[in-house]
Amino acid sequence: MAVEPDIAAEAAAWLARQDRGLTPAETRALAAWLAADRQHAAEWTRIGAFWTLADGARAVPELAAWAAELEARIKTAIEGRHLPEQDARVAAPAIVGALMEGLLGPLAPSPARDLSASWYGRRASRQSASVK
């Protein structure tokens, strides 16, 4: 099932807020948002796995430098209207995290490993179905 872009954007925004620290009112609002729809909690978990990988990227100097370079390029592209408006501080480490998921996902702790396994499983199913 595809997730609506608004839900994915909201989940990412909540994770960004949580990363900086939630107020008690925001904590209650997040709990209400998560309880309001099963897709909210599922997307929160899915994006959270990438967020964890992005945090790992910030801890490795070479990857942190790459994320900083991507952030600068994303900001330039947004200013030039080549990319839609977005938070480059979130997008850049997410790109690095996605790369890490693709390369290192099978080695990562759960839920990232589960995310990787389910993605590879769906991909293999589609490939075998298209071959038939």
What descriptive keywords fit this protein?
globular, mainly alpha, single chain
Task: Explain briefly what this protein structure is.
The protein is mainly α and 132 residues long.
Please give the structural blueprint.
Blueprint: H1 5-20, H2 24-36, H3 38-59, H4 61-79, H5 88-104, H6 112-131
Explained architecture:
With about 130 residues, this protein is mainly α. It has one domain. Helix content is about 80%, strand content about 0%. It has 6 helices and no strands. Helix 1 packs across helix 3, helix 2 crosses helix 3 and helix 4 crosses helix 5. The relative contact order is 0.10.
Structure annotation, total helices? 6
Number of strands: 0
Query: From the helix content, strand content and strand pairing, which structural class follows?
Result: mainly alpha
Largest sheet: none
Unreliable runs = 115-132
**Helix content range of the residues, please?**
over 70%
Strand content: under 5%
**Terminal-residue CA separation:** 23 Å
Query: What coarse outline follows from CA principal-axis ratios?
Result: globular
Rg from Cα: 16 Å
Mean pLDDT: 76
